[in-house]
Every structure is written in C-alpha cells, then in structure tokens.
Write a structure and sequence with these properties.
Blueprint (H helix, E strand, L loop, with lengths): L3 H17 L19 H5 L26 H5 L6 E3 L2 E2 L4 H11 L2 H18 L8 E4 L4 H7 L3 H13 L2 E2 L4 E3 L11 H8 L3 E3 L10 E9 L3 H12 L4 E9 L3
Parallel strand pairs: 1-8, 2-8, 3-4, 3-7, 7-8
Antiparallel strand pairs: 5-6
The structure holds zinc ion (2 copies).
One zinc ion (ZN) binds next to helix 3.
C-alpha cells in the first residue's frame, strides 16, 4: 500500500493545483481547454496559413491542388526544401509573439509552439523527420540584452514530442544584423553576408537533415542565409519550422 501513497498525493496535489490555478486563455483570460492556456474559441480564431507553398508558405493561387510550389519558388527555389509555419503574422500574433520575445511571456510561446508541434507532426506523417534542430542563433550582445533566446525555448518545446536533438552549439552569429526593414532583397542578403559561422571541427554525418527553428519569418532572408551555411557544411537537406510568417 505504501508504494501507492506518493502517486495518490501527487494526483491530489495536481487536482488542487488545477482548481486553484485553472489554465487561463492567453488571449481572453477565460478558462483554457483542459491543461492548456488557450480556449477553444480563441484557438479556432487564430490566423492560420491556408494552402501554403511548400518552400515559402506564401498562399498558392486558387485552383492549385495539393502540395505545390508557388511561381517564385519554381523559378528561384530557396535553399530550404520545406518551410512550415502554422500561422500568418497578423493579429493577434504580433501581440502574443512580442510579449514572448521581449517580456518573457513564456506561456504565449509555449501555446504557439504546441500548435506548431501538432502542425509539424501532421506534415511529416508519411515522410522522415529531420535529424537535428538548429534554432536561429542570436548574437551574444542581443542575448545579454534579452536575457534568453526565445528560439531555443521553442526548440525545447518541440524536441520532446518530436524526439529530435537540438544543436544550438553548431552555428554562431558573428554580428548583429542591421535593420532590414525597407531594404531590397539584395541589400538584405548583403547585410547578412557572413552573419553565421559553423563552430570549428563540426560537421554533419552523411545524410543528416536539419530543421532550422525560427519565431517569425518575415522575408526569408535570414533563414535562407543560415540554410546556405548549413548546406555548405554538409547538411543533406534543410527544413525550416517557424511559428508564423509575415504575409505582405
Ligand atoms: Zn480565449
Ligand atoms: Zn513559394
């Protein structure tokens, strides 16, 4: 009988905790779904990306069926073979994401990552998942300023359910990227040239596939630059997983 006591106490404590601190929705503060900090109504109202291009997630023109590439990706394929992001970066995503990024509202990131995790798992039902996850690295200066790398947190939330190893030590950010807004694609790429560098004495095993983990993809220039570095150092394929993408 004594072996059952810790389990019973544990269950009792969980019940007490549940009733004292019921999950509250991160958007409306009403009760969340069981064990979650998001209610069903707010979850169904989140702006999902529908019928996205496989490589850039921008919406495909009407009439195109199934998985396909947009016209731009057919002409100029980006280095990643797949980009997955469940949400469009439109309200309420900017408020949720910036509170997570700048004000340590971890619960926001955790709920969005849980949504991304389900989305990713569904997309790889019939294909092989990447072997490693590489969160987009922050420059040391920015890391000190913010106190934590929110992309590493997202990768941690994904790694358990998907059972993929995180490698945040493979790539370093050499310099902070100057403001990218308003620049042409060529100028943005110039800004980022040499921004990422692989750690010394690191390489990929033959056939290893890598998933870059990002928060919000805006133009795709940063993930493109990082993907090129990973491919140059022997990654067999690069995929990108983000929470959201800006639709211009
Ligand atoms: Zn709600
Ligand atoms: Zn595309």
């Amino acid at each position: 009988m004594s072996t059952n006591i810790p389990k019973t106490v544990d269950k009792w404590l969980n019940n007490v905790q549940f009733w004292l601190l019921p999950p509250a929705c991160i958007l409306c503060r009403q009760s969340g779904q069981p064990g979650r900090d998001l209610c069903a109504a707010c979850e169904s109202g989140l702006p999902r990306l529908l019928h996205p291009c496989l490589r850039c997630v921008l919406p495909l023109p009407p009439g195109i069926q199934g998985e396909a590439l947009c016209g731009t990706c057919q002409v100029l394929p980006p280095p990643q073979v797949r980009l997955l992001a469940p949400f469009s970066y439109s309200p309420p995503l900017p408020v949720l994401a910036s509170a997570f990024k700048y004000h340590h509202r971890l619960v926001n990131g955790k709920e969005l990552a849980a949504e991304a995790c389900r989305y990713i798992a569904q997309h790889y039902r019939l294909s092989r998942l990447p072997d490693l996850m590489v969160p987009v690295p922050l420059h040391q200066g920015r890391l000190r300023e913010r106190g934590y790398n929110q992309l590493l947190e997202i990768a941690r939330w994904l790694s358990g359910p998907l059972q993929i190893t995180i490698r945040h030590d493979l790539v370093y950010r050499m310099h902070e990227t100057p403001q990218q807004a308003g620049l042409s694609t060529a100028a943005r790429r110039q800004n980022l040239r040499g921004a990422f560098r692989m750690s010394e004495n690191t390489s990929f095993e033959p056939g290893q596939m890598v998933a870059i983990v990002d928060n919000v993809v805006t133009t795709g220039t940063t993930i493109g630059e990082l993907a090129r570095v990973l491919l140059r150092h022997g990654a067999a394929e690069v995929h990108v997983w983000a929470l959201a993408r800006t639709i211009l």
